[in-house]
Amino acid sequence: MDQNSMNNVSNNISNTANNTLQGVGNFFLNMKNNISSGLNSFSQEPGATSQYTYSNSMIAKFAFLILIVIIFMFLLSLGISLVSYFTLPSNDPYVVKGMIDGNFPLRISQDPNNSSAVPILKSNNQSSGAEFTWSTWIYLNDLGTDDKYRHIFTKGDGIFDDKNMSTVNNAPGLYLTPKKNELLVIMNTVSPENVNETIKIDNIPIKKWVNVMIRLQNIYLDVYINGTVTKRVVLKNVPKQNYNDVYVNQNGGFPGKLADLRYFSRALNIFEINTIMMGGPNTRTSTLYASQTSKGGYSYLSNMWYSSKM
């Protein structure tokens, strides 16, 4: 968002707040006048004792004070919500928005002091336990010819072994299996043996856009392909999250394209998953990859694909 847009937003918020406060002030003034007028009329009527008038006046003042406190709390809550909206990091950030080449390496910082950081907020205080969802679109040109895993993305330490796999942290990790149209998902768990849970998804099509979602809810780790859950693993231990950076397309990446890598700090429901599927991949060149030109023109994979695996 540029400076002019920020100024416009600030002016709009200021004008809205001023109009709201002015309206509330007029409302209070009219209410006070109406109450005073009613009490004066009543006190002038025959039979209206001074004690009864005083009692009604005290009740009206007390009710008026309660109303002021309620409206103040509402405005305070609204102000806090607006400040949080414009200053706090998103719970559902795009790590990569738009399209990049599969061999274009990225390291997305988690350092809050880094202006280009994209904070990944850990799942916290969910009623069903730890939750998150990672979603990305991939387009495979071919399977490659070497015996190393092709790195797509990981959230971890960025240290890789001779097979091109992150050696310490995969929370999660997504790879393309050597010489196969097969995806490998790895998730760290908290255990003395540092056990990694793995899921393999075979028969990934070539030269088609495919959406991959990694969804965690408590101890249930699901992998969705084009909106259809294809594999589920029940974790034997608690999932292990970390505060490390996000790495994309490391050590040569994979032969193809990647679009819209996004994190959600919750387990998406079926309606949210279908919304992402209906939107399709964003094939505009990512601002992280602005030196390249998006060619577009890619074919899509039917949403009915993989239905035979259910």
Shape: elongated
Helical residues, percent: 25-40%
DSSP summary: helix tally: 3
Give the name of the CATH architecture of the largest domain: Sandwich
N-to-C span: 43 Å
CATH topology of the largest domain: Jelly Rolls
Short description:
The protein has 310 residues and is of the alpha+beta class.
Structural features, described:
The chain has 310 residues and is an alpha+beta fold. The chain folds into two domains: 85 residues; 211 residues, Jelly Rolls, CATH 2.60.120. Helix content is 29%, strand content 26%. Strands 2, 4, 5, 6, 7, 11 and 12 form a seven-stranded antiparallel sheet that branches. The chain has a six-stranded antiparallel sheet with strand order 1-13-3-8-9-10, with no helix packed on it. Strand 8 and strand 9 form a beta hairpin. The radius of gyration is 28 Å and the shape is elongated. The two termini are 43 Å apart.
Topology:
Blueprint: H1 3-44, H2 50-87, E1 94-101, E2 106-108, E3 131-140, E4 150-155, E5 173-176, E6 183-190, E7 196-201, E8 209-217, E9 220-225, E10 228-234, E11 238-239, E12 246-248, E13 256-264, H3 270-279
Antiparallel strand pairs: 1-13, 2-12, 3-8, 3-13, 4-5, 4-12, 5-6, 6-7, 6-11, 8-9, 9-10
Helix pairs in contact: 1-2
Question: Features of this protein?
Answer:
single chain; 310 residues; alpha+beta; Jelly Rolls; seven-stranded antiparallel β-sheet; six-stranded antiparallel β-sheet; 29% helix; elongated; disordered C terminus; transmembrane
